[in-house]
Amino acid sequence: MHSVRRVCLSTLLLAAFGCGDSQEGADVTRAEGLCAQEQRADTFVAGLSRASPSGAFEVTFVEAMPAPPDRGLNRWVLEVKDRTGALVDGAEVRLRPWMPDHGHGSNPPHLFPTATGVAGQYQITDMDLFMSGLWQFTVRVERGADSDELVFSFCIEG
Question: What is the CATH number of domain 35-156?
Answer without folding.
Answer: 2.60.40.1220
